[in-house]
Amino acid sequence: MEKLAPILISAHAGSAIVAGHYAGLWTTIHQHPDKKWTISELSEKAGCKERWVKEWVGVLASAGVLKLEEGMIISCDKDVAKTLLPTSDILQLLSELQMFMDKEDKIGACFKKDGPLGVGYSDFPKFQEWMGNWSCCRNKEKNFPERFMKLVEGGVHEALEKGIKVLEAGCGRGQHVMAVAQRYPNSSFVAFDIDEKTLELNRVDAEKLGLINLEFVVGDFCNMRPEWANHFDYVMMYDCMHDLPHPDKAMEGLKTVLKDDGVVTMLDIYASSDMVKETKNPMSTVLYNISLHHCMSVSLASGGVGLGACWGVELAQKMLIEAGWEEKELRLFRDGFMDAIFVMTKGKGLV
Asked: Hey, which residues does 269 pair with through a beta bridge?
């Protein structure tokens, strides 16, 4: 119990943290740094019922997230409150657990030899919405896209300024490609995904932003459109290669749509393929659990290989070489805690 008690406490605290997000309590607390509240004051300011706030405070004061003093006075470290704003990585990762908790029986069944291959995309109707929010948070924090395009070097930023043809593969909710299309209006963009409903939402968002240089289409990594062969100057993908059923075919496909002189950037999870090494990092708990419930699961459910989020940079590089990229054409950057950026240059690239 000594080892499991902190896990139990953290799990319940995490649930209450997310509830406080939806109630607007973290935003209210953050807007008044260093303030000490009564439960009545905090409830009134956040537009919440006092009885609910009192119970919420009980959870998080017990866990040490909030401080509760004599006289029922509540306070919160301003850095904690900032970390739990709607735009924070931590809050988004905690909120993702909502998608998993009612799937545990289905996930458990997949373990069994006679059980399902995996839990598929259709069981995660809120995934695209969550992924879009996650992308927005990270993009804002990292000044995307200009910082990213300059970081990968190879003339990508300069070429986008002048005007080139760009493809985003596996665009999901479209947050990345819309940001790039907005920043670089001289370039033209095509983005594909397998989810038509999500693409319809993307088209509405793009129209609201006035993006006439961007088209969303249904597409498949393993069946690239014939007219795309040697068509794009720059191909980009974000956080999806490890989810795919057949990533080896996808890697080959990326090269076929690229012009003789072009660049591909692939952002994925920075992890080691050596599980013993990777599990020395306690934060890998988060990555492996997300993968257990979603990344690996959806790939296996589609009859795929189930790479998982922690497939690792070593395996990624090996697979890219097997897909036809030469070692001299590959570069790898680490950006922050969890981002691995692979840059593949064909011919002279964009310089």
From this structure: 339
Burial of 82 (0-12, 13-18, 19+ CB in 10 A): middle
Q: How far apart are CA 166 and CA 160, in angstroms?
A: 9
How far apart CA 57 and CA 308 sit, in angstroms, is 37
Compute φ and ψ for 293, nearest 5 degrees: -85, -25
Neighbours of 124 (CB within 10 A): 18
What are the pLDDT digits (tens) for 41-54? Answer: 999 999 999 999 99
Strand, coil or helix: 323: coil
pLDDT greater than 80 at residue 225: yes
Query: For the chain, what's the residue count?
Result: 351
How many CB atoms neighbour CB 259 within 10 A? Answer: 18
Rg (CA), the chain: 22
Neighbouring residues of 228: CB distance < 8 A, sequence distance ≥ 6: 167, 256, 257
Give the neighbor-by-neighbor strand order of the sheet with 37-38.
Answer: 37-38, 73-75, 67-69
- CA nearest neighbour of 297 among 286, 288, 308: 308
Q: How far apart are CA 240 and CA 111, in angstroms?
A: 23
Question: Taking phi first (over 0 means left), then psi (-120 to 50 degrees means alpha), and beta for anything else, what does residue 153 get?
Answer: left
Task: Say which DSSP state 32 is in.
Answer: S
pLDDT number for residue 337: 85
pTM over 0.85: yes
Structure tokens that stand for 91 in this block: 């809050």
Distance CA 234, CA 159 (A): 9
Other C-beta atoms closer than 10 Å to the C-beta of 96 total: 21
C-alpha–C-alpha distance, residues 192 and 98, integer Å = 27
Q: Output helix, strand, coil percentages for the chain, rounded to the nearest 5.
A: 50, 15, 35
> Token pair for residue 100?
């998993």
